[in-house]
């Protein structure tokens, strides 16, 4: 009997520990699985404007661009039923830092999708085929 109660208590604690809120790159919070890696970081020798344009191109090509926050330098998109956040920030005078966060509808992290988006941005940047920032698709 004591074992059943201890098992139930352990299961309850585990359930509460694995559910909660996670912070997104734009500073908001959403329901999800905390304490699990959900971000990929990349650093590129390109200006923030070039990286921003490449990121917008990739997100529009892969899915739907949902928001563009120029104050926080964060783009949000929906790709294959995943929510993707990409933050572009200047790291130093020659390098720009890119953070890519991906989560499923249920709030679970999707590192494969984050890595895929990061790789697509790198390919777009390397190709030099960037649309002008003011162009509409």
Outline the structure in words:
- This protein has a single domain, classed as Alpha-D-Glucose-1,6-Bisphosphate, Chain A, domain 4 (2-Layer Sandwich).
- It is 36% helix and 32% strand.
- The longest helix has 17 residues, at 2-18.
- Helix 2 crosses helix 3.
- The chain is α+β, with helices and mostly antiparallel strands and 137 residues long.
- The strands form two sheets. A five-stranded antiparallel β-sheet has the order 3-7-6-5-4, with helices on one face. Strands 1-2 form a two-stranded antiparallel sheet.
Features:
single chain, about 140 residues, alpha+beta, Alpha-D-Glucose-1,6-Bisphosphate, Chain A, domain 4, five-stranded antiparallel sheet, two-stranded antiparallel sheet, 3 helices, 7 strands, elongated
Overall morphology = elongated
Number of domains: 1
β-strand amount: 25-35%
Order of helices and strands: HEEEHEEEEH
Structural class: alpha+beta
Strand order of the largest sheet: 3-7-6-5-4
Low-confidence stretches: 133-137
Query: Share of helix among residues?
Result: 25-40%
Find the count of extended strands (DSSP E, 2+ residues). Answer: 7
CATH class: Alpha Beta
Mean pLDDT: 84
How many alpha or pi helices? 3
Main beta-sheet strand count, sense and barrel state: 5 strands, antiparallel
The CA-CA distance between the termini, in Å, is 65 Å
Per CATH, what is the topology?
Alpha-D-Glucose-1,6-Bisphosphate, Chain A, domain 4
């Amino acid at each position: 009997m004591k074992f059943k109660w201890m098992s139930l208590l352990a299961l309850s604690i585990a359930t509460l520990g694995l559910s909660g809120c996670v912070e997104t790159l734009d500073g908001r919070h959403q329901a999800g699985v905390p304490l699990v890696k959900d971000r990929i970081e990349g650093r590129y020798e390109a200006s923030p404007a070039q990286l921003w344009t490449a990121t917008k191109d990739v997100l529009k090509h892969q899915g739907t661009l949902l928001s563009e926050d120029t104050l926080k330098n964060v783009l949000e998109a929906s790709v294959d039923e995943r929510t993707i956040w990409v933050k572009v920030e200047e790291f130093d005078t020659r390098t720009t830092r890119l953070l890519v966060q991906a989560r499923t509808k249920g709030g679970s992290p999707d590192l494969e999708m984050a890595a895929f988006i990061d790789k697509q941005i790198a390919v777009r940047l390397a190709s030099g085929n960037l649309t002008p920032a003011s162009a509409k698709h």
